[in-house]
Amino acid sequence: MYRMNFYESTCLRCDQTVYQVDRVGPLKDFTFFHSGCFKCAVCGTKLTLKTYYNNQHRQEDKEVYCSGHVPKIGPGHLDGSAVGIRSALNVPKTTNLINDQIRSQNGTAAVVAPPQLDYQYGRFDASALHIAHALRATEIHRAYDKPREKPIEYYLDKDEQTRLEMKHRKEEDDLYRKFTRQREEEDKRIKDEIRDEWEKELERLTSRFEREMTAKRKRPEDTKVLTLRLQQERDDLEKNMTIRRDRKKESLTRKLLEHERAATAALVEKQSREMLELINEKRSAYMMAESIYLEPPGQEDMTAPYPSQAPSPAPPALAKYHIYSHPNEFAYIDEIAISVAQEDQKTFTDLVRQLVGRCGSDIEKARTIFRWITVKNLNTMQFDENLRGDTPMGLLRGIKQGTESYHVLFKRLCSYAGLHCVVIKGYSKSAGYQPGVSFEDNRFRNSWNAVYVAGAWRFVQCNWGARHLVNAKEVPKAGAKLAKTDSLRYEYDDHYFLTDPREFIYEFFPLQSEWQLLKTPITLQEFEELPFVRSLFFRYGLYFPDSHTKAVMFTDATGAATIRIAMPSNMQSSLIFHYNLKFYDTDGDSYDGVSLKRFVMQSVLGNIVSFRVHAPSSGAFLLDIFANAVTPKEYLTGEPMKFKSVCKFKIACEDLQTVMVPLPDCASGEWGPTKATRLFGLIPITHQDALIFAGRELEIQFRMSRQLTDFMATLHKNGIEEKRLSKYVSHLISGDDSVTFTLTFPEEGQYGLDIYTREHGGNGSSEKHLLTHCCKYLINSSKRN
């Protein structure tokens, strides 16, 4: 069977050889590109495997396009010259019956003309099967390209909206006063209880002291001892009563806060409904007389208007990437949110109108609210103790008092923008959670939002989306006010905006199954069994190729378990993985003085990275897998790289029948030659796999796709010093593009081979780069091989 040589393929764009280190592909049509050539054929926009499109009209067209320039599948053009139409136009129109070859209804053939008619003709419109398919394809291609609606100012007067807000604020003021009264009453009740207990206990102590003093005549020194003991017991009693009071207050505060949050959420629910009713009433009245769109939409753009009533939960028809493929598409909208966040507003009406005034779609409105909350960084905001509701910061008093969450605030702001939004309660795999933990109590209860945009309910998690603010020059000191001109970068996690349900379910489980927004909802047990992944896992486009991959992986009789992660081909040249293994319950990371990392073999083959764990003992282990996307140039600088967790697994070894020895003490990281190809363009000729079975001698040969120098190789074996093995490995550079490593093994067993190299200095410089670890092999040497 012919096997395509993926190491040496031709770039479709420039017709030059493309090596794996700089390769994109194979695409669906088995074409390859250089990463620099993988651009839209029309506008030159750089593409990824998630954002490129092919010409669906012409199979011979192998070029790639962006979403804006791909030849679209439109509804077609039908006129008198179209096939089947020419003769139909010449036939007398004696009936309006439908051709059953064009259209069917409810799965049955349409009614045809009576037998006495000599001819039947078809009626072509947007419901014809082949045309409806084309219209749907066009709709997907331009899912975000909807007609832009007029701002709310066109149909709802600001003063009228503000009057409703003032009515709501009065209701809030009454509710907060009620909260204050309840807290004061409960605080007084606790103080009275503690005071009564204190007086009774103090009376008991004093009575006992007086009895002891009068029981018999005491010497002065005895009286002094009793007095000191009484004072000590009194101090201890006061200390214990203070602790009991504080504990009671803490317990009561938690209960009151839970009650206040529920009451606030119920009030916001009512007020949001009233605000939406006002907006929809004015919007509908305006639409009766005027078009709601800024530009008159064409016939093909006449989609259903935003619903006045909240639709029932259902899975979205379009995925997130159909709406937008990169956060940069919202750059203008994000700038609006960042700018508005620099100022303080006195009313929600002012705030939301500043946010959404230039937004023409429901998606843009939701986006700017989401970004305002993430930019505002509410977790670190400082509030005055006496905060009035009619002050700018008074808008967020609920955040200060803990009665209002990010999710309730997002829902409130959405209602002012005319968007349907719900707060969903359930479980989340949040901070402190570990794979294998069951959701048996309230430790991991959480809340999040679903907002109705782009014709469907879509998830938003503002709290997890908000990260931190970084000054491009320096981080501001605590309490310092940021100038508007400061160069700021507001970090946030875009994964939690309009997250696809199939990804969201890995971290969040709603109490109501319909709010999973999945075609086939899962159970809580299935949720617990899903691998524990983080947002970075999806940002890198990672996925699990094996359906049996679970949060808890059980080892076989030899203590082995393998986890495989697949990555998109466009990430193969830049994505680097690392791992950490420790005991599940104790956090210990060594066994008999040997690092647990040496019981994991990480290797990369194609687009699959594998982690094969060999448990050194029975018990449970925690495998944490990290990743970072870096260019070869960044890697070769030698600067420390920051890796972030993408997933975690519990490795359970219940029965170990074979004792495993640790791997040779080589450099950390992946095994195999893939790293050498990715970083140095060093292509393996003789050995493509990480594991080699050899006799007493071995040759490993590479071809250099660019000039390298100063190779170095070190051999490792458990129980033998590295220096003793140095004479058993050598290398030879042949010509300009070949290097061969020759090994002889002094005895049978398992060896590890580390290979180091460096590049020539660029631009004619004689300066040499540092020797950098290139790759490593695991070699089993035996006479039988």
Number of strands: 33
Low-confidence stretches at least 5 residues in length (pLDDT < 50)?
Answer: 1-8, 74-143, 468-487
Number of domains: 4
Helix tally equals: 17
Q: What general outline do the C-alpha atoms trace?
A: flat
| Largest sheet entry | 5 strands, antiparallel
CA-to-CA gap between the ends?
27 Å
Q: Strand order within the widest sheet?
A: 14-11-10-9-15
Report the structural category: alpha+beta
Radius of gyration: 35 Å
Mean pLDDT: 81
Strand content: 15-25%
The level of helicity is 25-40%
Characteristic key phrases:
785 residues, alpha+beta, Immunoglobulin-like, 5-stranded mixed sheet, flat, disordered N terminus
Could you characterize what this model shows?
- The chain is an alpha+beta fold and 785 residues long.
- It has 4 domains: 154-287, no CATH class; 310-521, no CATH class; 531-663, Immunoglobulin-like; 672-785, Immunoglobulin-like, CATH 2.60.40.10.
- It contains 17 helices and 33 strands.
- The chain has a 5-stranded antiparallel sheet. Strands 16, 17, 19, 24 and 25 form a 5-stranded mixed sheet that branches.
- Strand 30 and strand 31 (738-744) form a beta hairpin.
- The longest helix is centred in the first third of the chain and has 70 residues, at 220-289.
- The radius of gyration is 35 Å and the shape is flat.
- The model is unreliable at 1-8, 74-143 and 468-487 (pLDDT under 50).
